[in-house]
Amino acid sequence: AQSVTQLGSHVSVSEGALVLLRCNYSSSVPPYLFWYVQYPNQGLQLLLKYTSAATLVKGINGFEAEFKKSETSFHLTKPSAHMSDAAEYFCAVSEGGSQGNLIFGKGTKLSVKP
Amino acid sequence: GAVVSQHPSRVICKSGTSVKIECRSLDFQATTMFWYRQFPKQSLMLMATSNEGSKATYEQGVEKDKFLINHASLTLSTLTVTSAHPEDSSFYICSARDPGGLGAFFGQGTRLTVV
Q1: Would you say the C-alpha torsion B108, B30, B46, A42 has a positive or negative sign?
Q2: Is B114 exposed, middle or buried (0-12, 13-18, 19+ CB in 10 A)?
Q3: Closest CA–CA distance from residue A17 to any residue of chain B (Å)
Q4: What digits encode the pLDDT tens for the residues A24-73?
Q5: I need a surface site. Which of A26, A38, B14, B58 has the fewest CB within 10 A?
Q6: What does DSSP assign to residue A81?
Q7: Which residues pair with A99 in a beta bridge?
Q8: DSSP code per residue over A67-80
Q9: For A14-34, what is each residue's pLDDT tens digit?
Q10: Across the interface, do A104 and B106 touch by the CB < 8 Å criterion?
């Protein structure tokens, strides 16, 4: 069975600092991986996705993630945090390919300090 | 930890029939739940926000008469797809905000196939 583990339910960084949100997955088949962001009182928004093309995926708002098969990881990074990045971030893996069901991690709340 | 249970995980129905999907918060009260739909190769789309004891708030373009949402208790929200058609076949997922403010919890999702 596929699963997603997000390390750290809460991450706090200073404005301008590196953002690193960790995601590890478990999958018996080549995975499709996603990062979603949820701003307060809003629905989910897709940040980026990995679908077996380039291992370094660039998303919106300056975020990117690197797929590392050897580490079964798909960590999300941003070189310089902005106050507007404060939100909840969810990593997800698709079971059964691109049209499979999504299995989400529990989420990581990112706080950005001025 | 808090769990949101969604049922059924998969359902196949005939065109023209109605299907009800349940979303339950198992160990916490959820005054607000969200219903999402995922189209193939696309991200989740927020369909509506379900509010306990009041009418749901639908996103633009979502037919409220087709996708009936009921949030009659603090632990249960239901989505009923009425007069289903093949184009309604999709993956539906619900989520509930953690009242403690630590995040959101998602149901397992429901794969609906209308034949």
Answers
A1: negative
A2: buried
A3: 23
A4: 999 877 788 889 887 765 656 778 888 777 899 999 999 999 999 999 99
A5: B14
A6: -
A7: none
A8: EEGGGTEEEEEESS
A9: 999 999 999 999 987 778 888
A10: yes
